[in-house]
Amino acid sequence: MKEGIHPEYHEITVTCSCGNEFKTRSVLSKPLHIEVCSSCHPFYTGKQKIVDTAGRVEKFNQKYGRHLQKQAQT
Fold first, then answer.
1. Most CB atoms within 10 A, among 1, 4, 28, 37?
2. Which cofactor is recorded for it?
């Protein structure tokens, strides 16, 4: 590697809002606080929420359905 062009890496502690802590190397020199990590993210934990798209469509139709029907009739 060329001298003087690469940033210095430091070992830092990353702290998640769930309380999980781990060490990593980064160009940052101070601890890092994050909101989501692999211990609490739904993709990694398998506890994903299923979005009720049918309920959203029904809610949209209830709210705007009358207006859309009036436009279709004219």
1. 37
2. Zn(2+)
User: Is 40 flagged in the annotation as binding?
Assistant: yes
pTM of the model as a whole: 0.53
Please give the Cα distance from 10 to 25 (Å, whole number).
5
Q: Is 17 annotated as a binding residue?
A: no
Instruction: Give me the domains of the chain, ranges plus CATH numbers.
Output: 10-73 (4.10.80.400)
Is residue 20 part of an annotated ligand binding site? no
Q: Could you give phi then psi for residue 48, rounded to 5 degrees?
A: -75, 145
Mean pLDDT, the chain, whole residue set: 81
Residue 18 annotated as binding site? yes
Of the candidates 27, 26, 30, 31, the one whose C-alpha atom is nearest the C-alpha of residue 15 is: 31
d(CA 15, CA 36): 9
